[in-house]
Amino acid sequence: MTQHQTEPPKVYFLACCFPPIGRGNALTNACVANQLAEDFDVEVVCMEPEAGYLLSCQQDSSLVDGLSPKLTVRRIRPGWGGKLHEILYAFGFLPCYYLHWSWRVWRRYRRIFSQPGVVFAVYPVFSSLALAWLVHRHFGHPLLVDFRDDFSGVMGRGRHRLWRPFFKRFEAYFMRHADHVTVTTEALKDDLVARHGLEPDAVSVVYNIVPSHHIPAVDASVVAHPEDAIQIVYAGAMSRIQSPQVLLQAYNQLLAQNDPAASAMRIKLYGPESPYFRLKVKPQLKGTAQFFGLLPHTELVLQIKAADVGFLCLASATYAYATPTKLFEYIELGLPILAVLPPGAARDLIERHEMGLVVDLNDLDGLVRALVQMGDAAVRAHYKANVLRARPFFRPATQIDKWRKVLTGSAAD
Prior knowledge:
- The protein is α/β, with parallel strands linked by helices.
- It has helices spanning 3-6, 24-36, 61-65, 82-90, 99-106, 109-113, 126-139, 152-155, 164-177, 186-196, 245-256, 260-263, 275-281, 297-306, 325-332, 345-352, 364-374, 377-394, 396-412; strands at 10-14, 41-47, 72-76, 118-123, 143-147, 180-183, 203-205, 230-235, 265-270, 290-291, 309-313, 337-340, 356-359.
- The strands form 2 sheets. Strands 3-2-1-4-5-6-7 form a 7-stranded parallel β-sheet, with helices on both faces. A 6-stranded parallel β-sheet has the order 10-9-8-11-12-13, with helices on both faces.
- Strand 9 (265-270), helix 13 (275-281) and strand 10 form a beta-alpha-beta unit.
- Helix 5 packs parallel to helix 7 and helix 11 packs across helix 17 (364-374).
- The longest helix has 18 residues, at 377-394.
- It is globular and about 65 Å long.
- The relative contact order is 0.12.
C-alpha cells in the first residue's frame, strides 16, 4: 500500500470560534473537529481570543482540555484594529467584526494551506467564509461549507441591510462552487435549494452536536438538589434573543399568586454577565431563583445533569430557523424541555419527538401553566422518556457520519 493510500485525507477546518472561546458555536466546532480527527488529518484554523469594546469574548479552558490530541490547532492572533472593527461593524460599515483575523491568516496562506486537502468552512462567522473564499480561489482545494445559521437571510438585516446584495452574491458563490453544503435544519435546506435553484442532494442537514457525556450518578455533595424541589435550569447567553427573563416572569407570577407550585421550584440560570443581564434579567431574580454566572463547561454539565427541566427561548420570529446548541445539550443530558419559541425549526423538533412543552411568544399565562404542568412528576417522566428515546439520533456519531461521507468523497475527487 502506498503512503498516499495510508495517510488520512487532510482537512482544513476553518472556524474562527474555537476553544478556549467558550460556549455555543465553539462547543459544536470542537465536537465536530474531535470526531473528524478519528478519520482525517484535521488542522483547525481559528482565532486567538482577544478582548474587545463591544464583544465579550468568554473563555473556557475546560473546552481546551477536551480537545483530541490528534488535532492540529493553529490559533492566529488577529491583526490591529480589532476594537475599531467592532465599532464599524456595529454601525453597519463592515460585514463582520473579525475581518482583521481572516486577513492575518491569509497573509500566511503559503505556510498553512499549501498541502492538498479539503477546506471545511463553518459559518458563523462571516470571516471564516471570507477566508474559505480566498483559499478556494487561490489553491482550488475542494470546499465544504457548513451553515450553522441562516446567512444572507439574517446577515442583511438591520444596520447591515445595505450589505444585502453583497451577502446574496457571496452566498451564491458558495452554492455554485462548494463541493457540498450542510445546514442545521430542513427549513434552511429548503430555502437554499429554492433560492439558488439547486438539486436537493447538493445540501444535507446535519444537526448541531455536543459532546456525548458519560457522567455517573451526580453526587449530592457536588450539586445541592433538595429531594422535594423541582430544578429548572437555563444555560446560555443573557441576551435579547434568548430572553431568559421570561422564565423568571412566569415564576414570579406564581409567587405573586402564592401558588404552592412556586415553593417547590428552584430556578437556576447559568451564563455570562452582560448589560442585558443587569438591565432585564437581574431585576427579575426573586424567591429561590438564582444566577450562577459562567461556569467551566465540565462543571456546567454536572449542574444541567442534576436538573429536572431545561429551559430555552427564542424571543423573535426572525430566529425561527435556529436550533440552539443548548437544546441539544439538554437532549444529550436527558432533560425534559420547557421552551418559548416561534413556529420554526426548534419548535418542530421538540414537538415532533414530544420532548417537552412549547409555549408561544408573549404568552406569559401559557408559560405559567406550563411551569405548573412540569411540576407533575408523571409529566416530566413522560417527556424524559421521549428525550432518551430520541437522543441516539442527535448524538455526534450519528450526525458526523454525514460529514465523513462528504469529506471522503471530496478528498477522493
